[in-house]
Amino acid sequence: MEERIRRIREMETILQTAGPVLRRLEAALEEYEALREPLAALDAYYGSREWWEDLDADARGELPADLRRGVLSQDEVYDLLTDARRLETRMRESGACGEE
Prior knowledge:
By secondary structure, the chain is mostly helical. It contains 3 helices and no strands.
C-alpha cells in the first residue's frame, strides 16, 4: 500500500510538472520556427559583400549615431548563429526533433 501511494505521488508530481514545461516548450518552439527564415537571412547577410560595405560605412561615420548596429559586430552575430546551430544539434541529438 505504501509503495502504491509513493508511486502515485511520484507520477502525479511528474504530471503536474510536465504540463507547464511542455506548454512553455511549445511556445518557445513556435517562436523559434518563426525565426528560422529571418535567421537564415541574417546568416546570409553576415560576412556578405553588403555586410562589409555596411561595416565600412560605419567606420567612415556615414551611419546615424543613434542607429543600433549590433549586426555589424562580428562577435555578436557569430555567437548568435553559433548558438542557433548548437541548439539545433542538441534538439536533433536529444530526439527533440522527433527522431528516435
